[in-house]
Each structure stands twice: as structure tokens, then as C-alpha cells.
Amino acid sequence: MFVVTARDNTIDAEGNREASPDVEVQDEIQRNIWIPHCNEEIKPYKKQVFPNLDTAFEYYEDYGRECGFTLRRSTEKTNNAGKTILKYFVCSRAGPNDYSESARGNSSYKHRNRKTVSAKCICPAKLSLRADWENSFFVYKFIETHNHPFASKSGMQFLRCNRSLTDFHQHFIVDADIQLTSDGAFKYEYETDSRNRLTRLFWADGIGRQNYEVFGDVVSFDATYRTNMYNMVFVPLIGIDNHWKSVTFARALLESESSENFTWYCESYKKIFGKEPKCIITDQCAAMKIAIENCFPLVKHRLCMWHIMKKLSAKLGTLFCVESPFMDQLNKFVWSDHATPTEFEDGWNEVISKFGLNDNKWLQEMFDLRKSWIPAYFNDEPMVGLLRTTSRQRYNNKKLNHADDIMPRPINKKKIEMDAAEMYTRTMFYRIQEEILAGGGDIEIESWNLVDGVKTILIKDPISLSKSFEISLNLETHDIDCSCKMFMRVGEKSQCPKAKDCWFEFQGCISSASGNQDHIDYIHKVLKLMRNNIKLSQRKGNSRLDDESVEDLIGSKIVEETTILPPNQSNNKGCRKRITSSAEKSIGGKKRQMRECKKCKKMVYHDSRNCPTKNNTDKTTLTNHFL
Q1: Superkingdom, according to UniProt (predicted)?
Q2: Residue 587: pLDDT above 60?
Q3: Structure letter (DSSP) for residue 609
């Protein structure tokens, strides 16, 4: 076999030049081999004949869709007549990534400082076709091995080849009419009036219920939506997932915002999920407060900061809030993550007195409620970001999990940063990365000691040098505590359950094996085997739109039909018609139309009687008369 090797090109035995990775990359490819498992009937093979390149690409694309990867058209070779005689179809992850050694040679790379990731990993998989004398194409080389895991079952829908809708999918969407069902995954509660018209509805699909099991410690009730044709109150039950994005656990439609309806909402919540949250965050709805106190007496109830702060401009005046420094000075104490209750109260009173607002009743009411919405009073409680806004929308957790198959770009390539890139979701990694960078350059350690199995570190705040934070680690119980309480508020739920215990077990193994290379090699071997086994369990997947896939998508089976009449038109706040002005009534309640003014000859809303140019002309005439 005749092979000429260069940095970026090789020539195979048939004299064809192809892209080739570096020697180090080839070694990496050999260590990570992934072979698709599928029906042999759909797998390409050598000397397989296709009438044209499009047919060949579609065949290879169907194979990739079944196995969990996407592909793209690559280079081709033509003869003197311009006819294609050689064509390559490659895995979409072929080629060097944006931050590999080969990509660093590109001058434009130095200017890329954004938080981006590259899916390319120099995957060797490809299908090579050669033209024959009958204007057809045959497979002369097929490499089925990849150097990366394939899309999981839940990630199949996000492959590029699955982003377009076939005729079957379009008809399925049009014909699908999912009724109220119950098969163990999809749960619902509803009530009707004496005429069988819907008055209350609470429902949760299988995916929402699964998410609640993991992320349901802190939830929010948001009854501010009115976007439905019956003007019913739409109340989603929302939390934050491990990507720091909103995730919807359940939804409800209520006839009105009464304490009776919200009580029914809470009782349905408990019946469907079977587990109470640790904290509920709402706006200042009095009816909702009564329902939560009756149904969840042991659950902490907090108010949404965003809703309260949003009212400031309405209560104090938009011009005052925009043009004065009042908001900037107040925000420093309201939104602070590290202020103590005393620091907040002193800061609030100072700002209120400075701007002469001591007699404002609404501000006094908000100050009296401070323990329900100011973070300084519950820094040690998990809020996971929901306290700052309950106005969140559902986010596709599956899509983010699929995107996490691609490693984010490290900055300084420290071991702790590389470990965090593998352990955390991409969104959480970027937050952790900022902490790692700050910890490596900004902080200043004042003291470090170990007493009775507890390691204590005193760190000076890089922003406020007069403040220090104390971190303690119990080496026996593995409990971690910091005086800033940030980990308690937002850190614990970013990991899956038991992740902390696993980490300390690993750390304990490393400590026990310290100094013994054989033990370290054994730990590394076992961990690598465990990781490969986990990856193997995620390889297989099915992209066919069969009954099982549909059920997985909607989280339920269609087993029976329940007929309920549509609800009555509700008349809740925020859904009434705007009061029509006298001017609008004079023209039938319709908006005024533009017309041509006979005075200025322009298409405008005024006419010749009130045209601005007429007033100017009259003034000029009057001035000339006196002159």
C-alpha cells in the first residue's frame, strides 16, 4: 500500500488525496471507537451501486438517522469535462474543532473570545463513492467507526436530519387531537359546573412529573397569564433545572382568581405530585396567599422580587425612577446576595430618608414584608434563581441535555476546570468557570487552619475588601458551608442527587492511594471502565415515529376519551376591554384613518381646520398686519 503522509493530507493506494488528522489525533481516534448498532439491511457496503449522488446521500442519511448521527457532503473530484468522478460524504463532526491545535493556526482564531463550543472532533466516519462507466456511483470505501458517542433516544429529535417535517409528520400533527387521558404518566384533575362546562383544570404530563422529582424543591405559581380565548387564569407550575433554565412541571386553567380556586389548585397539586415543595414563590396575590397557608402550612412562602420592584415606577413615578439615582442606590441593598439583615435595613432607611420618601405608605408596606422577599433574610434557603422572577417560560431540557454531548471550551485548561466541564451541564459550567477564574486570581486567603477534622479558610472579598467570607469543610461528614450561603441557594440543585457523595468518595480514594502509583493506576482504570459503560448505555436509540416514540414525546398513551363542554367566558382582571375615549366614540370606536390635508397636501391625521401650518400662517399674517 502506497501512502504519502503530510500534516493535512494523505494519498491512498488509489492515488486519491484525502484530509487526515495529526498523528496525536489518530492515536486519540484509536482509543475512542464507536460503532453503530443497526439492522444490517440499512448499512452501506462496498461496491453498493446508486443511480446518482442524491440517492446515495439519502441512503447514508437514513443510516445515520437510525444510528444517531448526522452527516454532510464533503469534497469531490471532477474530470476535465466537469463531471463528478469522486465524492465523499462524512460525519458532521469530521474536521478539527475551533480550539484544536490545527485550528489555532488560523489567524481568526485569536479573536474568538466568545463562550462557544465546536461539535467537530475529527471523526473518521465517511462514505466514499466513485463514478462508473454507466453514470452511476458505487461505494469504494466505507468507514463506519466514529470517535464520539451517538445521540441518545431523547436527543434524536435534535439531529439536523430530523429538523424537517416529512409529509407523514405534517399529517400527524394536523390529525393529532390528544384528549384527556390517564395511563399512569399523564395526570389531571378537573371540575365542571351544573351544565358540564369546564371551570377548573390541572394537568401534568410524564416529563413534567419526572422533572418535579429532581427539581421540585422550589416552585413558583404565576397567575399573570391571560392568553386564551376564554380569558381563564392560566397558572403554570415552574421550577429551575440543572441548565439554569425554566422547566414547567404542570399547568392549570382556573375560572377566576379566587381563594377557592387557588385552594383547589393546591389540593390538585398535592394529589398529582404526592410531594410538597420546600418553598413556594408567588406574586402578592392575596387569594393565593390564603390558599397556600391552608394547603401548605409547613412550606415556606416567599414573594417574587421582580414583581415588587417592577411596581416602583407606578408607585413613585416613572420620571423620578428614571432620572434620579434612587433606583441605583436602592438596588445595591435590595438585590445584594451577601448583605446581612442589618446592612439591608440600614441601607434601605438611608436611601428612603435621602430622597424624602419616609411617608410613602406603599414603601413602608414593602419594608414590613421584607422577610418575605429580601434575600438577606433567607440566604441559607435554596432559591435557585426563582425569587428574582416568576415570569419564566418552559425550556426544552431534552435539547440542552443533547447539546451537553459537546464539551465547552476551557480557558486555562486547569484540571479542576476540565473536571467541571465533564461533570456539569454547559450552562452551569460557565457559571462554575467564572468562579474558578475568580478563585485563581481575584481572591485573597487570609487564614487557613484545621481543627477537629474541620478545615476552615478565611477569604477576603475582592470587591468589598472590608468583608471576609469563611468556608468550612468537615472531612468526616463531607459537609461544606460558606458564610455567603451561595452554594445553599443555587449550588446544590445544579448537581444530580448523590453527586456530592460520589465526589467525596472519589476524593477519599485519591487520598488513600496517595503516593502509591499502582493504586492510582487502578482507580483510573476502574473510573475509565465505568465511564465507558455509561456511554455504551446511551449509544442506542430509535428515531422512527412509532407508537413508543409518540408516547415518549407526549409522556402519555391515548387510552380513552372524555367529553367536556368548553368553559364559559371569564371576566378576570387584565382581560376586560379598554375604556373607549370620547374621540374614538365619535368615529364609531375605530382608530382614526390617515387622510390628505387640503392645507398642507400631506397624508396625516389632522385636517385643514387644525393643520399646524395654518396656525403658523395666521401668526405670520397677524405679525405683518401690525408691522
Answers
A1: Eukaryota
A2: no
A3: T
Distance CA 59, CA 76 (A): 18
Query: What is the separation, in whole angstroms, between the first and last Cα of the chain?
Result: 107
Distance separating alpha carbons of residues 471 and 439, to the nearest angstrom:
13
pLDDT of amino acid 125 = 93
Kind of pairing between the strands at 17-19 and 9-11: antiparallel
Contact 98, 112 (CB under 8 A): yes
CB 157 within 8 A of CB 398: yes
CB 129 within 8 A of CB 149: no
Q: Are 384 and 214 in contact (CB under 8 A)?
A: no
pTM for the model: 0.50
- Inter-residue long-range contacts of 365-371, CB under 8 Å, 24+ positions, other chains counted: 366/308, 369/303, 370/344, 370/345
Let me know if 604 is exposed, middle or buried by CB neighbors in 10 A (0-12, 13-18, 19+): middle
Tens digit of each residue's pLDDT (9 = 90 or more) over 310-356:
899 889 988 888 888 999 999 989 888 778 899 999 999 999 999 99
With the CA atoms of 384, 386, 392 and 397 taken in that order, what torsion angle do they form, in degrees rounded to the nearest 10?
20
Q: Are the CB atoms for 327 and 321 separated by under 8 Å?
A: yes
528, three cell numbers: 475509565
Sorted by sequence, the CB contacts under 8 Å of residue 306 that are 6+ apart come out as: 388, 389, 390, 391
Q: Are 282 and 288 in contact (CB under 8 A)?
A: yes
Cα separation, 130 vs 138, whole angstroms: 6
Q: Are 146 and 36 in contact (CB under 8 A)?
A: yes
Show the DSSP H helices in 5-139 as ranges: 23-31, 53-67, 101-104
Which candidate, 398, 66, 339, places its Cα nearest to that of 205?
A: 398
Q: Compute the distance between CA of residue 627 and CA of residue 622 in angstroms, rounded to an integer.
A: 9
DSSP, residue by residue, 276-300: --SEEEE-S-HHHHHHHHHH-TTSE
82-136 pLDDT, tens digit each: 889 999 999 988 988 765 555 555 544 444 455 666 778 889 999 999 998 878 9
